[in-house]
Amino acid sequence: EQEAEVDPLLELKQKFESIKAKYSKLRKEFQQKQEAEKLRNFELKNELLNELKTLIDSEETLKQTWEDFKNIQQKWKEIGHVPHTQNQELWNNFNFLVDKFLDKVKLNRELRDLDSRKNLEAKIEICEKIEELLLSDSIEDSFKKLRDLQIKWREIGPVPSSNREELN
Length: 168
Hints:
mainly alpha, 5 helices
């Protein structure tokens, strides 16, 4: 009778060991797949860092670079986890490049604003010269000067939008 009682326990123990071995094998495979995915994600994020560096050095229009920047940010968010040992350095690099890009955007806007203010001053100066032509006695001379001033006007870049209508 005792042997009959031991056999079911031995059988259960063997089943348990078999299930435990299968679980360990599957868990190990799962962890290996996760690590491989993390390494792939690490590579993808490094590629995005390179794209961001290229974007910072790009001479594209601000509108286009902004759209590209937003796409890079979205891809970065969509990529999953990376190896823990690489995570902090990746984030540091990404945040550094984002700051650098945003500085470039700000600088571009400031330069564009400065340029448009200089253009405004130049166009106001042309308006004053045109008004002086009204006082001239020679119509031919005034007409020549007016044409030259019109050419200069077209060569000057845009002015701030708030002044555009009034100036025209």
